[in-house]
Design goal:
The chain has 379 residues and is an alpha/beta fold. The protein has three domains: 210 residues, Rossmann fold (3-Layer(aba) Sandwich); 87 residues, Immunoglobulin-like; 63 residues, Orthogonal Bundle (Type 1 dockerin domain), CATH 1.10.1330.10. Strand 8 and strand 9 form a beta hairpin. The protein is globular. The N and C termini lie far apart (49 Å).
Length: 379
């Protein structure tokens, strides 16, 4: 792995005489995820900051990482608190906050607050590394599908791009690049905190950014039409923003695939941020699935190849049981339905899209509706 190779290359730096490199002081600023809630109770120093300090030192960096996480804090409180946290001699702010704002503040307000925190740090001579927030478990009572967390991630990426800062991307690494990320998140009441293994990975995400190890492919920002958008105009343009905060996007390898067909992909921008703007030559109809293929310039490259949005064009009708809105009731819908069977409104597991007869419970009546249409396609 590149990560192991990079560690070996950096290990030699640890053999330099003491004092050969100036120590960098990092301030880990955020909420209870930074503080370390959910970590191994046997650990005296919890969260990702002590792990990050050890990783940086193992990679030959003279580093001190101070944990300034505060449980329950939102970004509005962070704007006020940052002035009392920074000290003389601090070098870098590691800013990961916004989890407690999900469902309370708009994404635009969260982005504004993060910008203000970083601005106040800059006024004190402290640079900022922005970070997306980790995803939460599907059983979480708020944003279990991580739609809002994904929007916050896109906003943080745009902020880091605008301000020309580094980005650590826990959301992408956990949610997209880690098979079954749920094993890294503890249960509990809110279902948002990493466990010990999750904090290990979180520290590694930051360490890679701070030591120039690139294992994250290009990541998405703004997408329109948004995933699962309904009633989209047949002539709506397709707009995607793509970022890379490591080695840069390979522009020539970036392609749109619409309904399984690779199309001409108009692009503009740079290797750091690419804007894709596609006008449909013919009006959209039905359900449109859009895939994006890209890669960065790392050796070997980190690749992106996945569906980035699926939207429903105005005038399209669906059979009961077509949960994934792909125009057909099939095994994929049954798999999407199964996790919510037996739930009712008010339960953490309840989802309205699985309540096919809208009686506030997901039960045998809903399953019967799905079964009645199984194998059928929308007209």
């Amino acid at each position: 792995m590149r990560r192991a190779a990079a560690a070996l290359l950096l290990a030699g730096a640890a053999l330099l005489p003491a004092g050969a490199a100036a120590q960098t002081t990092y301030v880990a600023f955020g909420d209870s995820i930074t503080f370390g809630i959910g970590d191994d109770p046997a650990r005296s120093e919890k969260g990702y900051p002590p792990r990050l300090e050890a990783l940086l030192q193992a990679r030959g960096r003279a580093a001190d990482v101070r944990n300034e996480g505060l449980s329950g804090e939102g970004t509005t409180d962070g704007v006020t608190r940052i002035a009392n946290v920074l000290q003389a001699g601090d070098d870098v702010l590691l800013l990961m906050e916004g989890t407690n704002d999900v469902g309370k503040l708009s994404v635009e307000t969260i982005q504004f607050n993060l910008r203000e925190i970083a601005r106040k740090a800059a006024n004190r001579g402290v640079s900022t590394v922005h970070a997306t927030i980790p995803p939460r478990l599907p059983s979480a009572t708020n944003d279990g599908e991580n739609h809002v967390a994904g929007q916050i991630a896109a906003a943080v990426r745009e902020l880091a791009f605008q301000e020309e800062r580094q980005l650590a991307d826990p959301f992408e690494v956990f949610f997209r690049l880690t098979p079954d990320f749920t094993r890294l998140i503890v249960g509990g009441d809110d279902k948002v905190h990493p466990n010990a293994a999750g904090y290990d990975l979180l520290a590694e995400v930051f360490a890679d950014v701070l030591t120039g190890v690139d294992e994250v492919p290009p990541v998405l920002g703004f997408v329109s039409p948004a995933n699962d958008a309904q009633g989209v105009s047949p002539t709506a343009p397709l707009r995607l923003d793509l970022y890379d905060f490591g080695t840069g996007i390979d522009l020539a390898a970036t392609r749109l695939v619409i309904e399984g067909v690779e199309v001409e992909t108009p692009i503009s921008g740079s290797e750091r941020k690419l804007e894709i703007r596609y006008e449909p030559p013919q009006p959209w109809s039905g359900v449109i699935q859009v895939q994006l293929r890209s890669r960065d310039r790392a050796t070997p490259p980190n690749t992106l190849d996945r569906e980035v949005t699926q939207f429903v064009v105005a005038g399209t009708t669906f059979l009961a049981g077509d949960i994934d809105r792909d125009g057909r009731v099939d095994g994929a819908d049954l798999l999407a339905f199964a996790p919510y069977f037996g739930s009712q409104r008010g339960d953490g597991r309840y989802r309205g899209f699985a309540d096919l007869n809208t009686d506030d419970r997901v039960d045998g009546f809903d399953l019967a509706l799905l079964a009645a249409n199984f194998g059928r396609s929308s007209a």
